[in-house]
Predict the 3D structure of the following.
Amino acid sequence: MFSLLALLLASSLAQAATTPLVVGNERSLEFTGHAEIFVDESGALDAPAVAALGNQFHPVTPDDLKRRYDSRVFWLRATLQNASADKIERWLGIGHTRMENASLFQQDSHGWRSVSSGLQVPMKDKPVDALGLVLPLTLEGGESRQILLRVQSRPVLDLNSRLWQPTALLQADDSRQLMVAAGAGGSLIVAFISLSVFVRMRQRTYLYFSLLHISTALLELGREGLWERYLWLATLSFPIHLHVVVGMTAALTLIFIQRDLLDLRTTRPRWDRVFLVFVALNLAIALISPFNYGLWNEIWSRALLVIFVTSLWVAVMAWRQGNRTAGYLALGFSVAWVLEGLRAVSTWALCICRLPSTPA
């Protein structure tokens, strides 16, 4: 009896997983809940070979959707059904803007055709003018069609995907672009002022402060796809290792700012040596990135969390001992430290922390 029940349960789950995603007039629909997944360990399979795999796909699980470092090739399979009698166009938004490649495969009378997007695809070759990995598709009235989605990324992998009405996605993009541009613009203004002060006073702390705000502005623009879209050549793919350069610059300048403002060399020499170890650690970790970007990102996110916690602790400790500058430092950077810490934790697959680039 137990075996029969288990068999019936497995059968019902498989049937639910292959239930078509009915596309109506919704602004957006959750895609991955209606999909099945297959991991191509070799990375060598093409769409016809994957389409022939049949039951080697399995239903997408919550663990499959957690953000994590995994550079293997993932295939998603789903069936879409147009609920109306009219032809419709929808855009499939995948993961976040820093992922390297996603390709949508559809079969017609001429064979398999595909469209691709991601950091590996130059802006001029992307199928639609939208942020992130966005792939268009059309369905004739009443049509039901199976599609395949291939995803691979050395940066953090995120398979969460939604099917959007084009206008709805563009509206969400516009709102997010305005917020990110305003924040980055504010950072660049602060950087310009700090650089001007450095030129006049020749105090290197202001130079560090300027570099910190320039690098953090570029990081935010890169996280949201605006660096690639507006500050990069449309004919070239975006090199992910630029994130390494600006990320390391931000981390190192933050360490140097704290050493100078709190005068750790004279007031707290032990902590000063700890921060020098952090500098050496950052430089050593950077050497990994040309060979294994994912491993660098994973190690660096953990190192950043340690640096943020230590920096905040040292600043609060100095403030409690009467150093007012330390209090201002802790107040000014505490929110940024907490947010960056949450970003680091969200990439360890400990939780599905929604800090997405594709709106949900």
User: Anything to note?
Assistant: The radius of gyration is 24 Å. The first helix runs from residue 2 to 17. Confidence is low (pLDDT under 50) at residues 1-17, 348-360. Residues 301 and 344 are 5 Å apart (CA to CA).
